[in-house]
Structure formats: structure tokens, C-alpha cells
Write a structure and sequence with these properties.
16-stranded antiparallel beta barrel; signal; mainly beta
Length: about 325
């Protein structure tokens, strides 16, 4: 009887240890954010818009909440990223902001030390900014990020070519086709990385609202221990029409808990016509960290650089007259876990 008890005890301990070891492969992370926004040059009750993604409400508003479950085995793994809230709905083109939304869902296989295959839905490789606000310095988003794809559904292969060079090749459904491709067409993507600088290429036929061709550079440099300069530039063409622009992201850390950064962006549409919309947007953001909480006060000014106001929509000033600029103050709070 004692032998059986010892044997069962040993089996129980072994099972518990195995379960603990297996649980270490599963990690949970995510973020929750909310903000307050008021327009400085326009009445809040007319709800003007910057023409960019997310953070487009006046008064108090919820951004998004996301929970990411990641499983990492010896050779294979999987990621499930669920989001809810207006920001998550906008990123996934889902109008239901109450139910859970799949932002990312993919599996991967580490074929070798330098090669990884990934299949499923994953966030885009284009651009400087990302969907989750905790990973961006500025709380509001740029025109370049808002105009490109947010996610892809398909297969990609990542290659570590050397200590300095990396390469990614992808075949996916067309631009922001988040479930299945009904057109029978596919998109091609590539990324060449060198010392933290990335040259990105994307192509689809442009049919059924596709993006067409885009070339995008994303990178940055540590000017000093406390000063970083981020850079993003892109050109898009879809059958003779599209957009182009560039943005600089200087960021200065004044202490361990506070940094201040500026985003200066020029963005324009191109195609037929002599006076297509273009805009210069300046965003000044502070970032104060308390444990896992980030508080971001932000002032943003977007000014049209020509007579066509299409990028800002029907913006008016505080007197109710048509305007060619829009300014806002935003205070955001983000908790990551």
C-alpha cells in the first residue's frame, strides 16, 4: 500500500512539474487605454476629424482593450490577439465595438535557427506606427499609417541573413481582406532589414479596393543616449492615383519616467488634377510613466497646404466658418500588462 502511495505521489509531482513547465510556454499580455479630447479651433459638438485613424472622438472616450495569448514551443507557436473598443473596431473594419474582435491570429514554425514561417492574420509590416497605442510614442496616428493596411492574412517567411541583415517575404490576401479573398487574387510583400532600418514593398492588383503598389521606408537613429530620431516615408500608386508623404519623429528622454516627442508629417494625394489635397500635421506629445501606466498629454495641429480641404473634411472654426486647419488637445492613459 505504501509503495502504491509513493508511486502515485511521484506521478502526481511529475505531472504537476510538467504542467508548470508547459504553462511557462503560455504568456498573457495586453493593454487598455482611454482618453479625453477637446478641439482648440473648432466646436466639440460638431465632431470634426483629422482624417486619420482612431482617437477621433471629443470628450471622454475609450480607445481599446486587447488581450494577447502567446504559446511558444520548442519549434512551433501561436498568437491570439483579441481587441474590443472603437480603436480595435477601426483596425479590423468591424462595426461591432462590443463583442471580441480578432486582431491577430497566427501560428508559426521555426524551421531553422534563421528561418521562421508564419501563417494566419498578422499586423502589417508597413509603416512606423502600430495599432496598439502602448507601442506608439504619439497617441494619435499619422496619415501614412492610416492610409496603409493595418493587417494581412496569409503566409510569410522571415530569414535572418546575418547579424545585420534580415529578409521577409509574404503572400497574402489583398489589402485589409481580413477573412477570405473573394477575388481569387493575392498580394505580395517583402521587407529588407539592415541595422534597424527597413525597406518595405507591397503589391496587389488594386482591384476591389486594393492598395496597389507601395514602397515604404521605416527606421530611426539613436542620435545620443537620450535622443532618438524616427523616420517614415512612403509612396503609393494605384492605377495612377495614390499618396505619398514623410514623417519625422524626434524624441527626447528628459528622465527615466518622462519623454517628449514631436511628429512632423507631410502627406499628399496624387493623381489627375492640379490641386489635390495635401496637409502638414504637427503633433507634440509628452509621455510620463508610472509603473505600467503611461500618461500622454498631446497637442496636435493639422494645416492644409492647398485650397482643397478633402483631407480634413468639413472643418469649421469656433465661429462656424470654414477653416483650413484643426487643432486639438488630448490626454490619454494607457496601462500595459
Amino acid at each position: 500500500m505504501m509503495k502504491k502511495f509513493i508511486t502515485l505521489s511521484m506521478l502526481f509531482v511529475a505531472t504537476a512539474l510538467f504542467a508548470q513547465e508547459d504553462a511557462k510556454k503560455l504568456t498573457i499580455s495586453g493593454s487598455v487605454d482611454a482618453y479625453y479630447q477637446t478641439y482648440l479651433t473648432a466646436p466639440d459638438n460638431d465632431a470634426p476629424s483629422f482624417g486619420t485613424a482612431f482617437a477621433d472622438q471629443s470628450g471622454f472616450a475609450v480607445g481599446m482593450a486587447n488581450v494577447i495569448a502567446s504559446y511558444e514551443g520548442e519549434k512551433v507557436g501561436a498568437v491570439l490577439d483579441l481587441v474590443t473598443g472603437p480603436r480595435g473596431a477601426g483596425a479590423t473594419f468591424n462595426t461591432d465595438i462590443v463583442d471580441g474582435i480578432v486582431n491577430q491570429a497566427y501560428v508559426y514554425w521555426n524551421v531553422s535557427e534563421g528561418t521562421t514561417l508564419t501563417m494566419g492574420r498578422f499586423n502589417t509590416f508597413l509603416g512606423y506606427e502600430v495599432i496598439a497605442p502602448a507601442a506608439n510614442f504619439n497617441y494619435s496616428c499619422s496619415y501614412l499609417f492610416s492610409s496603409g493596411p493595418f493587417s494581412h492574412v496569409g503566409l510569410k517567411a522571415d530569414f535572418t541573413l546575418s547579424d545585420d541583415f534580415s529578409l521577409m517575404l509574404a503572400i497574402t490576401n489583398p489589402w485589409d481582406t481580413n477573412n477570405i479573398s473573394m477575388s481569387g487574387e493575392y498580394a505580395l510583400g517583402a521587407q529588407l532589414g539592415f541595422y534597424g532600418q527597413y525597406l518595405n514593398l507591397y503589391y496587389d492588383s488594386g482591384n476591389a479596393g486594393g492598395l496597389g503598389f507601395e514602397i515604404d521606408y521605416t527606421g530611426g537613429f539613436d542620435v545620443s543616449d537620450d535622443f532618438f530620431l524616427g523616420i517614415n516615408a512612403a509612396y503609393n500608386d494605384n492605377d495612377g492615383e495614390g499618396f505619398y508623404g514623410a514623417a519625422l519623429y524626434p524624441q527626447l528622454a528628459t528622465s527615466d519616467s518622462f519623454s517628449i516627442g514631436l511628429r512632423g508629417e507631410y502627406f499628399a494625394l496624387h493623381g489627375d488634377g492640379d490641386d489635390l489635397p495635401s496637409v502638414f500635421a504637427t503633433t507634440l506629445t509628452g509621455s510620463y510613466t508610472i509603473e505600467n501606466l503611461i500618461i500622454k498629454p498631446e497637442i496636435r495641429l493639422d494645416a492644409l497646404t492647398n485650397a482643397d480641404g478633402g483631407l480634413l473634411g468639413n472643418v469649421i472654426d469656433n465661429d462656424g466658418l470654414p477653416a483650413d486647419s484643426l487643432a486639438a488637445f488630448t490626454l490619454a492613459a494607457i496601462v500595459s500588462f
